[in-house]
Please model this.
Amino acid sequence: MSARRLIVLLIGLSLLALGLPEIAWGPLTFATAPALPTLSTVTLNAKSLTVNTAMTNFAVSDTTGSKLGWNVTVIGQSGAGKSAVFAQYCPKAKCGTDAEGYVAAGQKLAASSLKLNSTGAKFSGGTGAAPTLQCAAGCNVDSAAAVKIASAATGGAGASTWTTSGFSATSLALTAPTTLKVLANEEVYRVNLLWTLATGP
Model:
């Protein structure tokens, strides 16, 4: 046996003897999922109004080790029992003659009535290059198409948890048109939003 082959065999034996475990990478998940706060009550006066509130913070946990980047998108969600736009909703068993849920042929706001502005907000707590919030110029939240609100570049953010902070008191702005009608019997305007976390910047 040649000396070179013997060295290779010895190296192989030493690695086996160490019994080093394989690295177990984890998933890409929301550590804290994005969620809209309850918007404040609107006092209608036959004028177009803007209602503001602060966006809640969310966190992304990336333990994949892939460094492929990731992105967060939001879209108005339709389907059974859901509404992609703000629509008339009964939150209890009965609201007058309306049953619990969205009211058929009820009042609605137009799509893209709610905007998110991330100016002043940031990600922190992770390792490597910080992800970026994409809505400094304003993003439609209740949109008919998915809108990217945050992303981490390929090879950028390391395997860790990134948490947002710094959303201003006016970071969420709902535009209420002059045609918006008062709802009776404790009904409210409600929307369903789908927040998605996916691989890729």
